[in-house]
Amino acid sequence: MQFRKITIVGVGLLGGSIGLAARRHRLTGEVAGYVRRAASLKDCENAGAVDYATTDLPAAVSNADLIIVCTPLAQMPALAEQFLPALKRGAIVTDVGSVKAGVMRQLESIVAKAGGHFVGSHPMAGGEKMGVLAARADLYANSVCVVTPTKKSNAAVVRKLERFWQSLGARTLRLDAAQHDLLVSRSSHLPHVVAAALAKLVLQPAGPQRQTALCATGFRDTTRIASGSPEMWRDIALANRKNVARAVDAFVAELKQFQAALRRDDGKAVEKFFAAAKERRDNWCACLASTSSE
């Protein structure tokens, strides 16, 4: 048992999956969950994600050794201000947000003043379905979880947090928050923008008749993540807006090069475009397979 009590602030897909995995692997004696709506209390307990859920945030956090904030980014500072008076001295606070620099700036110092330790986390796992009823205990298995300590972070706390994520099946990677935000703007945030734009364009109500009948597996797979939470992705895009805007610029430049090749009727350039993409993705998939088998 790594912690006597873990509190999950926001018991949805990510938070619920943490609770399920922590209980399955016996990482804690107790999992408490905080939810905003009373209607969600039964779902949390029925899903088995927590030992108990409550709408009383200080009560949920009281005596917890580890608090994991699993809410949209914009809600995190206000929630932290609410639960800090109940924070146990020496408690570890982390989050699962997809953007780290702003969260680290906002929470590290105020948690430290309350006697706790804040270190950011970003498990690279999830899905388009929302809510605790979509949670599963193996969500983090074979995933990467980025941990973003600063120069002020307690080394023992960072190691303990990394061991926690590893116990859920994740591989941990330490990154500076700014570097993390730059990298995920391309690999995580840009794909969501592209999927959303594609779904918005192709499935527009004023589009051609029979269009949806011709949207088959490729379209479905490419746009799957467009079904994610609009509130969550609004917060992510705005919190990382400079990096995401640059990523969109780079993507548009790639499309324009391809468009120019089409207009020139340049078969070699068109084939080179697809060949380079295939080679790079195939190499990436081979790397993934090799890593997961280690």
Protein described:
- There is one protein chain.
- By secondary structure, the protein is an alpha/beta fold.
- A 6-stranded parallel β-sheet has the order 3-2-1-4-5-6.
- Strand 2, helix 2 and strand 3 form a beta-alpha-beta unit.
- It folds into 2 domains: 173 residues, Rossmann fold (3-Layer(aba) Sandwich), CATH 3.40.50; 85 residues, Orthogonal Bundle (6-phosphogluconate dehydrogenase C-terminal fold), CATH 1.10.3660.
- The model has no long low-confidence stretch (mean pLDDT 93).
- The protein has 11 helices and 9 strands.
Rough outline: globular
Note the gap between the termini: 26 Å
Q: SSE string, helix = H, strand = E? A: EHEHEHEHEHEEEHEHHHHH
Main beta-sheet annotation:
6 strands, parallel
Radius of gyration: 21 Å
CATH fold-level topology of the largest domain: Rossmann fold
Number of domains: 2
Main sheet strand line-up? 3-2-1-4-5-6
Sheet/helix structural class: alpha/beta
Looking at the overall shape, the CATH architecture of the largest domain is 3-Layer(aba) Sandwich
Please give the number of β-strands.
9
Helical residues, percent: 40-55%
Low-confidence stretches: none
Strand residue content: 5-15%
| Overall pLDDT score | 93
CATH superfamily of the largest domain: NAD(P)-binding Rossmann-like Domain
What is the CATH class of the largest domain?
A: Alpha Beta
Q: Count helical runs.
A: 11
